[in-house]
Write a structure and sequence with these properties.
Structural class: alpha+beta
Shape: extended
Radius of gyration: 56 Å
Helix content: 40-55%
Number of helices: 66
Distance between the termini: 79 Å
């Protein structure tokens, strides 16, 4: 049975549990669980990380922990009772763990590893705390380390600052907000501004002396030297080096490392130097022989100096090498360091051995204890401490020192009968009173233990040596009396014996008989002569002698011999026990000399303070002893001495001696009667404050009042104890009188005399310290009243002395901080006077920092008292709050408004102070508001007498609240503080909203106050710190538990207040739409559900007012864009917005317009969300651009928002520039250009455009667009804009710019002719599935590929852009399940562009680099084909049932445009019969042959290989059956009988076969002229095979019945432009590639990006009979295809797929399928027709197939022009115009069926298979088999058929006359076939049909026109030429039957010029050309002269094939229509 747990409430999981049992709860190790119930070894509960999921788990998997339970029951909260630091560590480490892993993901390695180390450290420290074995101090230290690391980690990870008190987290609800602010501020300051250390230390480590010739031991002495005062400031650090220059004792670090301690900040300056003196121990002379002398001397060696300023920058110098210098003369040794510092180079130089001293230096900061903690290893290993000379800056009580510093300065000695000066050595001993030498009391410096004697260094031959060596004598106090120093002087001989001969001595006693020590200063000692054998052991003999010149001992009558010899020393005593001051000794011994008391008291002020504090207790005893014995005589003087001593302790140097005085007062003071005299003297001084001459003295007295009162109170207490409380009333009266004097003194106003106010300030500054003393004797209320009276007596004048006002406030602050104020009784008495002074200061805006501090303390105290549950305390707190609210709330609000409206000061210190003040006042206000209860709020609101006052108050407090929630109010990591502030604000707003409803509605409505309220509520909800979605789960849980979701609370309040407004809502429409919309975008479901209905209300009220809600709509749309671009809103919001509002408006009368508005806003949200999601990605891709285009069009078409439209134009432009889509960028900018006109209307500054006229902006745009068209190689469009802007320059006569523009235009023409342009491929992309963005979802697009981008590369790019998309493996239209799937499907395949402008493409002589532009620009329509079998499939001949489904895609805009892809607007699908395909294939192959022959004739072809290969491919077609398959399929009787309607088509097919034979014959004739010698065998083989082919067709010579039309080139040989290049071969044409590099041919090869499946290949080889074996077709060189999905072999030329790549790629196929494309997995119906039908054979295609057939791999290129060479050998190339058109021949015998088969067998070349037309609309293509099917445009009939939707088959003759053409009427670009010269003339058309056929132009099968050769059948249609489209034919004159070659063609040629490249043509289907208006040239008033139009004409066609005669008609010259200008749109 499950039982609720009593004690087992909380635990930690110690083993993972999967929860596999029923109701099991899955747990991981380390999870914390809350336990609800237990049963038989199982617990039921939940994991704290997911409290919503409850379950059971084994009890032995849980480690129980102690916890306390709050709110027992259903909503109980369990809190672990562990140390708060442990709790914080645990939760913090959990949060860090998640973020730590993210650091690794983001590759932030440095922080990742640092945090890892810190986490491990914290875990180790946590273990130490949990073990519980730490001492109290160690525990404190560990917690300090833990919290420091937690704070560091939080700061690094950007987490919140944690407020702590004594290392434990504080609960913000348990302390006042002012205290919380202080804690946060303290931690923030500690983090940001470390306190500069006042104490510094220098660490020195000696490493070595580098010198070439040492050989002697050395002494190195470091010290610090003040060059400013020319004195050392530290003791010496002394160490010894061995003969190698290394420390003598390396194993003892203290011997070679030292720490110079207690350097003040004032001593870190550049004139403080580290000096190093080096003394060698050895012979007198450095170069003396070793056996010269055995005695060792100390001799100068060198000196080095380093400024301490060099360390200030880096604090440490490792391996520093100091240069060592030596003085030029030894007599300057004492000042060598000064000379080096002063750089007196003449006095020193580098040592001869060029020595260098290697040292390591480091500057440390902080007190010595801190250094010991931070550098533990330094002190563990050992380091000597080197002190400063004398006391440190601060003297600590209890510090014991007794050091006498002696500096051996110099001596003056006589020669002593010698010819040269002496070598003097000084030996020093310390001798006690008994004459014994004291052992080990002479210290040479730290690092070396003290010695018993000292030997000075020796200066060579110097009778006036100067040593300046400092020694320290640490002699104990007890041995100081009677001790003396003896110095012995010896001459050091340099002879062999090296004797040291004593010749004199000096001595000096350390203490005089009266107890005074040797005074500080320099002493000149007498040198007493003596002999070597003099016994100095008996000190009594010489101590009677005088020791210093001018000083004689008492009774010594012995005369001092005059001597010239003297010895100088300097002494300096640093002692806490001994004094050198006689006055101090006289005072302490006052009883021995009573007559000197007055003098001693007077001299006390002159004694040094350090002497007084050394004997503080003795001095005080002396003073009070004198006072007790003779108070009348010495009372005043003793008082003055006491004041002097008290004030002495105020000095920072002696500040630490205050506790000594406190201890004296408490324990040693015994003056029980002193209080009377002290009170009397103090009152006397206070009563005389007005006497100016006493002001200085009175000021000193007032400064000391704290300790004076202490003495008074202690004296009275001693008296009371001694007498049993006598004279109590008398004492009270004395105190009352004293305080009355104080009140009178304080109440005096300083009338111009600053002295009085200065005295008042001094008194007030120390007065609060008296309270605690008074409380020892009086009741708390009495003291409170005394203080209240004293403070109340202060003058209220605020314009007085500012310093006094500041001190007055400080005094009040100290009063609030005092113990007196903590008592509720006294606080109630003092509070009014405190608030009164605060109010005055706040009103004047003075001393705000102090005011804020006082208020903070007041509220801290109130919070502490309110936390206590004692009733009377709670009552007193409520009363205090009442007083504060009435007194300060209003002024507090005004103060915050005032200080926040000021500009922030510039200095960092001032700015911090400013922030402090603001934060303090804000925390005070929040504290006050939090303490207020319902009663306080009600009293406050009732206290306003008028509504105006209440209105002002509400406006004021709302404004303050808006300021409080500004982001800059608190630092960003102060989330705790912000949440507390928000909780207070929302609580207050809920109280105040009632007042708003009651007082400011209906007739009292006030818009301003309501607007302020709503504005506050909105910005409150939008605060960053309240967006819980951004928090970690643990942080979010804590916030919700403590405060709930405050946004929802405020949202509900907004809704409630809005509903109360009634008709006043209209005042806030549309102003509040934006703010409310921003609130609803917050991802909080409850908040959205509350707020969204307000929009319905707004729509309703707006509808009532104006009959519509246009304002609501406009505001919603404007704000949505800006808010969503900031990252607000999501898909859930869009759905919620739509559903809530639609439900709300269901019953409204205006429902329809409401639905429209909601739909518009919803659609805008969809696009904005897509746009935002796309913009998050890094690189610019099609998705970003497409999304921007979608949004841009939406703003223009649906919303008509011109400004937003223009903004997104420029965003799109920037995206294009970033992606280097320069053409698209230009088209995009044209959209803005079209909105402008050439006017002088001024335009405002907008985006990046300055203020300028419309003309200037349009000019700037034009130039930018031209530049982008130039960079995008779209020069034709640039030319148009150049002309337009040139017209403007010309109209303004701006010839300078006009000239530049014309030159730019010319340069663009040059680029067209000179530079190569790559032609892009086009791809159809379908986006299916609901996971795509809205603007792509279930739509299909056509995309313009990048340069060199083939299908596979494009497909891969799309899959990269949509990594979750699935590539569809077929080309069929997807079904509904795909559309509705929750996934992404991509369907991609290549499509073929259908050029709109055929005029340029059909004209002859136009270079390809001009035509190439029109083939891939301004394209609206694209197509692709899919083959399928209809009916029963004939296995013998699949052509019988093979149909083609042709799909034409029509776009919404032409490509290129403002995007690289546009949506498909319309699809047209038609089916082509097998016969129509056969016709199309033969037509295309014949056209290709004509093109190649023409190019070869006109020498446009530098290499004849393409022609050779094409001829070979057609003549030697070894495909299975060749055209015989067509004969079998279509020429049999069965087919003709079953398809009577196809008679004309069959006739047409037969004509094409015969026509092909004629073309081949003419081609062979041309080939013979130009073929190189090494290819003659191939040519001969072609000729032989051609005759075999003719005979197989039954053709011996062409019959008369067949009108033999030569290959007709309308202009004769096509005119060669000067800059034209040979027509490049299509690289995709070559399907069968010879085994050699394609680069060996001059033709430009492009390889197929597609290949066939093995199944399709097999079908083709079975059907077409392309080669003798399949291996000949397939076993070829691998295709260099770009497809990642392609097979290893290139496909046969005949089997190029037109299907998409996605339907062709299958990487999983086995190797036996040589062409593993995706369509291998398609059924025959699904397979694209390219699986069976070939691509059109272009030049390179036929060339390569020819070479593959013949394996001609080593044909050299002819070095001569092949055509010219052929002409020289054979003669001129005959044209086929000799074969004249003839009538019907009755003798013509038609071939039999078998002959037909043979005839057709070889007629079909390797590309001559059924093909479809690329240009007709569906119905036309299904019907028209007439020459009109060659048209690139659909005609009128085509449109009519398309519209009717019926497939009709009118009887159309095979070659109808022009008049019967259904093509639309556009001026022809084909010139008439007039006679031409051989170079310029035309070769008459070679048409083997009875109808004379005239080609309207030869279109090279260039790759430019194809998107990808994977497009299969559709690719072939590029070769088809329009028979009738593009010109209008009328019979005007007979056809020319025999052109004359001698007639000049010049006139006609002039008329046949190519139309300019900037021509713009209309688009079919009545669609305007997509070219922007800016690219169309409007007709000028007088248009410029254009080149003459060509003579348009074409041969006449017979009505039917049986006609024997023909009539020629001449076409009428029709001028090319100029396009009409498009009207510029004005938005």
């Amino acid at each position: 049975m499950w039982i609720p747990t009593e004690h087992e409430k909380y635990g930690v999981v110690i083993a993972g549990f999967r929860g596999t049992v029923p109701h099991g709860l899955s747990l991981e190790i380390g999870d914390t669980v809350q336990i609800l119930e237990k049963c038989d070894g199982w617990y039921r509960g939940f994991a704290l990380k997911n409290p919503n999921v409850k379950g059971i788990f084994p009890s032995n998997y849980i480690h129980l922990k102690n916890a306390c339970v709050k709110n027992k029951g259903q909503f109980e909260m369990v809190i672990p009772t562990e140390d708060s630091v442990i709790t914080e560590m645990t939760s913090t480490l959990r949060d860090w763990g998640t973020m730590w892993k993210q650091l690794y993901v983001r590759n932030e390695g440095d922080l990742f590893h640092r945090l890892w180390h810190i986490m491990n450290e914290i875990l180790d420290l946590r273990r130490q705390v949990l073990v519980g074995h730490l001492t109290h101090d160690r525990m404190k230290d560990v917690k300090r380390h833990i919290t420091a690391r937690l704070d560091w980690g939080n700061e690094q990870l950007g987490l919140d600052l944690v407020p702590r008190k004594e290392y434990a987290m504080v609960d913000p609800e348990e302390i006042s907000i002012t205290e919380l602010y202080r804690l946060m501020e303290h931690r923030h300051r500690k983090k940001d501004t470390p306190v500069p250390a006042s104490s510094h230390h220098l660490f020195v480590q000696m490493k070595s002396l580098m010198c070439s010739n040492l050989g002697e031991e050395l002494e190195v002495i470091f010290s610090l030297f003040d060059s400013k005062e020319n004195r050392p400031i530290s003791e010496r650090f002394f160490l010894r080096l061995n003969r190698n220059g290394l420390p003598k004792c390396p194993e003892k670090p203290e011997r070679h490392c030292s720490l110079f301690v207690d350097l003040g900040s004032s001593e870190l300056r550049k004139d403080i130097y580290i000096t190093v003196h080096i003394i060698r121990i050895g012979r007198m002379g450095a170069g003396e022989k070793k056996n010269a002398c055995n005695v060792q001397y100390r001799r100068p060696f060198g000196c080095a100096v380093l400024s301490i300023a060099d360390l200030l920058a880096g604090d440490s110098k490792d391996d520093l090498v100091l240069k060592v210098y030596m003085c030029n003369t030894e007599s300057d040794w004492y000042q060598i360091h000064e000379n080096i510092i002063k750089k007196l180079n003449a006095r020193y130089n580098l040592t001869g051995s060029n020595a260098g001293l290697a040292v390591s230096l480091q500057l440390l900061h902080g007190d010595i204890e801190q250094i010991r903690r931070e550098y533990t290893s330094m002190f563990t290993h050992g380091v000597s401490i080197t002190r400063k000379l004398g006391f440190s800056n601060i003297i600590m009580p209890g510090e014991m020192r007794n050091d006498l510093y002696i500096t051996v300065e110099r001596g003056e000695f006589e020669k002593g009968g010698k010819s040269v000066a002496r070598n003097v050595e000084v030996t020093m001993h310390v001798v006690d009173s008994s004459g014994q030498i004291l052992k080990d009391f002479i210290s040479f410096g730290s690092g070396e233990p003290p010695a018993s004697e000292y030997h000075s260094f020796v200066l060579y031959h110097n009778n006036g040596p100067r040593w300046a060596e400092l020694l320290k004598l640490p002699i104990p106090v007890d041995k100081f009396r009677g001790a003396h120093i003896r110095c012995e002087f010896r001459h050091c001989s340099t002879k062999e014996k090296g004797e040291k001969k004593l010749f004199g001595f000096s001595f000096v006693p350390l203490m005089q008989e009266n107890g005074r020590t040797l005074p500080d200063g320099t002493h000149e000692l007498i040198v007493h002569k003596c002999e070597e054998n003099t016994n100095l052991q008996d000190s009594g003999r010489y101590l009677k002698l005088p020791f210093s010149k001018g000083i004689f001992l008492g009774n010594n009558s012995q005369a001092v011999k005059t001597t010239k010899e003297s010895f100088w020393i300097t002494s300096f005593l640093c002692s806490t026990k001994l004094t050198q001051n006689g006055d101090m000794l006289d005072l302490l011994k006052w009883r021995t000399h009573p007559d000197k008391i007055a003098g001693c008291l007077s001299k006390l002020k002159e004694i040094d303070g350090s002497e007084i504090v050394k004997f503080l207790q003795d001095t005080l005893d002396t003073l009070f002893g004198i006072l007790d014995e003779n108070s009348q005589r010495y009372g005043s003087k003793v008082f003055d001495c006491l004041v002097h001593i008290i004030n002495l302790l105020q000095d920072s140097k002696f500040h630490h001696f205050k506790p000594v005085m406190d201890t004296y007062i408490e324990s040693h003071f015994a003056g029980a009667l002193a209080y009377r005299d002290l009170i009397k003297v103090l009152k006397w001084h206070i009563d005389r404050v007005t006497e100016v001459e006493l002001h200085e003295h009175i000021q000193e007295v007032l400064k000391a009042q704290e300790y004076i009162f202490k003495y008074i109170v202690q004296s009275r207490r001693l008296f009371s104890i001694a007498t049993g409380g006598q004279n109590e009333e008398e004492f009270r009266c004395c105190i009352q009188e004293l305080l009355m004097s104080v009140r009178f003194f304080l109440s005096q106003e300083s009338k111009g005399t600053s002295a009085l106010s200065q005295l008042q300030a001094v008194f007030l500054s120390s007065f609060p310290s008296v309270y605690s003393e008074l409380l020892k004797l009086f009741d708390v209320r009495e003291v409170a009243n005394l203080v209240h009276d004293a403070l109340g007596s202060l003058p209220t004048v605020m314009h007085g002395d500012d310093s006094l006002q500041a001190v007055k406030l400080q005094s009040i602050g100290k009063t609030v901080e005092s113990h007196l104020y903590t008592n509720p009784d006294s606080r109630y008495i003092l509070l009014p006077v405190v608030l009164h002074h605060l109010h005055m200061h706040l009103q004047e805006q003075k001393d705000l920092i102090m005011c804020a501090r006082i208020l903070s303390n007041i509220f801290c105290l109130i919070k502490k008292n309110s936390s206590c549950l004692i009733h009377f305390k709670e009552k007193s707190v409520l009363e205090e709050i009442d007083v504060i609210v009435n007194s300060l709330l209003d002024i507090l609000l005004r103060t915050i408004l005032e200080i926040t409206s000021r500009p922030q000061p510039s200095g960092s210190a001032m700015r911090l102070q400013f922030q402090d003040v603001t934060g303090e006042f804000v925390s005070c206000l929040l504290s006050l508001l939090r303490q207020m209860t319902d009663r306080h709020y009600q009293q406050l609101l009732d206290s306003f007498s008028t509504k105006e006052d209440l209105r002002d108050f509400l406006l004021q407090i709302f404004t303050v609240f808006r300021i409080l929630i500004r982001p800059e109010m608190f630092p960003k990591d102060w989330t705790v503080m912000r949440l507390v502030a928000n909780n207070v604000i929302i609580t207050t707003v809920l109280y105040l909203s009632d007042a708003l409803r009651k007082n400011f509605l209906n007739e009292n409505f006030d818009y301003k106050i309501w607007d302020s309220y709503f504005f506050l509520a909105v910005i409150f909800i939008n605060q960053l710190c309240l967006q819980l979605e951004m928090f970690t789960p643990s942080k979010k849980k804590k916030v919700l538990e403590k405060y709930g979701d405050m946004r929802v609370t405020m949202g509900c309040e907004i809704f409630s207040m809005w509903q109360n407004l009634g008709e006043h809502k209209l005042h806030f429409i549309p102003a509040l739409i934006g703010p409310f919309l921003e609130v609803t975008l917050i991802p909080q479901p409850d908040l959205r559900n509350v707020m969204i209905p307000i929009f319905h209300d707004m729509m309703d009220w707006e509808q009532r007012r104006s009959g519509n809600f246009k304002q609501v709509e406009a505001k919603l749309i404007d704000k949505l864009d800006s808010l969503m671009s900031e990252g607000k809103g999501d898909e859930t919001y869009r759905e919620l917005f739509n559903s809530i509002l639609l439900k709300k408006i269901e019953r409204e009368t205006w429902r329809e317009s409401g639905v429209s508005l909601i739909a518009t806003v919803t659609r805008l949200m969809e696009r904005l969300l897509d746009y935002r999601d796309c913009m998050k990605m890094g690189e610019v891709d099609g998705k970003k651009i497409g999304c921007t285009v979608s949004l841009l069009n939406f703003y223009k078409t649906e919303l008509n928002k011109e400004e937003m439209y223009i903004r997104y134009i420029h965003k799109l432009y920037d995206l294009h520039l970033k992606a280097q889509n320069f053409t698209e960028a230009a088209y995009t900018l044209l959209l803005y250009d079209e909105l402008l006109e050439w006017s002088d209307r001024p335009l405002r500054e907008f985006l990046n455009y300055p203020m300028q006229t419309e003309w200037q902006r349009k000019e700037c745009l034009h130039l930018t667009i031209i530049q982008n068209f130039d960079r995008g190689k779209c020069w034709e469009n640039g030319i148009i804009l150049c002309r337009k802007i040139a017209e403007q320059y010309e109209s303004y006569y701006d010839y300078r710019n006009l000239s530049k523009m014309r030159m730019m235009e010319a340069s663009l023409y040059d680029k067209i002719m000179d530079q190569q342009r790559l032609e892009p491929e086009f791809f159809r992309v379908g986006f299916y599935g609901k996971k795509f963005p809205f603007f792509l979802r279930n739509k299909e697009f056509v995309c313009r590929g990048h340069d060199y981008e083939r299908l596979e590369a494009f497909q891969q790019r799309m899959l990269n852009e949509f990594p979750h998309a699935i590539a569809m493996q077929h080309a069929n239209q997807p079904d509904e399940t795909i559309f509705q799937a929750e996934a992404q499907y991509l369907q991609i395949y290549a499509v073929t562009p259908i050029p709109e402008n055929q005029e340029v493409l059909q004209r002859d002589g136009i270079p390809d680099n001009i035509k190439s532009f029109y083939k891939v620009n301004h394209i609206w329509r694209f197509r692709y084909d899919r083959p399928f079998h209809k009916g029963t499939k004939d296995k013998e001949n699949e052509f019988k049932s093979l149909w083609v489904e042709r799909t034409t895609l029509i776009l919404v805009q032409s490509l290129p445009g403002i995007s690289r892809w546009f949506e498909v607007e319309k699809r047209e699908v038609v089916e082509m019969s097998p016969l129509e395909n056969a016709i199309e294939v033969l037509e295309n192959k014949n056209q290709q042959l004509r093109t190649l022959i023409s190019q070869c004739q006109t020498r446009q072809m530098q290499n004849i290989n393409p022609l050779t290969m094409c001829l070979n491919g057609v003549i030697d077609a070894a495909v299975n059956g060749g055209v015989a398959r067509y004969q079998e399929a279509f020429f049999i009787k069965e087919y003709i009988l079953n398809h009577p309607e196809d008679g004309e088509k069959i006739t047409r097919l037969r004509e094409l076969m015969l026509e092909q034979a004629q073309i081949l014959e003419f081609g062979l004739a041309v080939h013979e002229k130009v073929v190189p010698q090494d290819m003659r065998p191939l040519h001969k083989k072609l000729v032989d095979q051609f005759f075999v082919m003719k005979s197989s067709l039954g053709i011996q010579e062409f019959s008369a019945c067949v009108q033999a039309s030569p290959v007709h080139f309308p202009n004769g040989s096509p005119r060669v432009c000067r800059n034209s290049i040979p027509v490049s071969m299509s690289p995709d044409g070559a399907r069968v590639i010879p085994r050699r590099s394609p680069l060996s041919y001059p033709a430009v090869n492009r390889y197929s990006s597609s290949s066939l499946s093995s199944q399709a290949s097999a079908e083709v080889s079975n059907i077409t009979g392309q080669s003798e074996s399949s291996d000949e077709v397939f076993n070829m060189q691998p295709s260099p295809s770009t497809s990642s999905l392609s097979s290893t072999h290139s496909a046969s030329p005949n089997v190029t797929s037109s299907a998409p790549s996605s339907a062709r790629a299958s990487p999983l196929l086995s190797d036996k399928h040589k062409h593993s494309r995706e369509n291998s997995c398609l059924s025959p119906r699904e397979r694209p027709c390219s699986a069976i039908y070939p691509t059109p054979l272009e030049t390179s295609q036929t060339t390569n197939s020819c070479f593959a057939k013949w394996n001609v791999t080593s044909i050299p290129h002819s070095t001569r022009d092949p055509i010219r060479e052929a002409e020289e050998t054979v003669g001129p190339v005959p044209t086929l115009s000799e074969i004249r058109p003839a009538g019907k021949c009755p003798n013509l015998s038609l071939p039999s069926v078998s002959q037909e088969r043979r005839m057709l067998f070889n007629h079909i070349g390797d590309g001559a298979l059924p093909r479809s037309d690329s240009n007709l609309p569906g119905p036309d293509k299904a019907v028209n088999t007439t020459p009109s099917s060659w048209s690139l445009d659909s005609g009128k009939e085509a449109r009519n058929t398309s519209e009717s939707g019926k497939l009709i088959s009118p009887p159309v003759p095979p070659r109808p006359a022009q008049t019967a053409s259904p093509a639309r009427h556009i001026a022809s670009v084909s010139p008439s076939p007039a006679g031409r010269s051989p170079m310029k003339g035309s070769v008459q058309s070679f048409t083997p049909s009875p109808v004379e056929y005239h080609s309207s132009g030869l279109i090279s099968n260039s790759p430019v026109l194809s998107g990808s050769y994977s497009s299969g059948i559709s690719s072939l249609s590029r070769c088809s030429t329009s028979d009738t489209s593009g010109f209008e034919s009328q019979s005007s004159e007979p056809a020319v039957t025999a052109p004359s070659y001698g007639v000049s063609e010049e006139p006609v040629r002039k008329e046949s010029k190519t139309p300019p490249p900037y021509s713009v043509y209309e688009r079919t289907l009545k669609r305007p050309v997509p070219l922007p208006h800016s690219l169309s040239i409007p007709p000028a008033a007088e248009p410029p002269a254009l080149p003459p139009k060509p003579q348009l004409g074409r041969p006449n066609h017979l009505e039917n094939s049986s006609s024997s005669s023909s009539s020629s008609r001449r076409t009428e010259q029709v001028p090319r229509p100029r396009p009409l200008p498009r009207k510029v749109s004005q938005l």
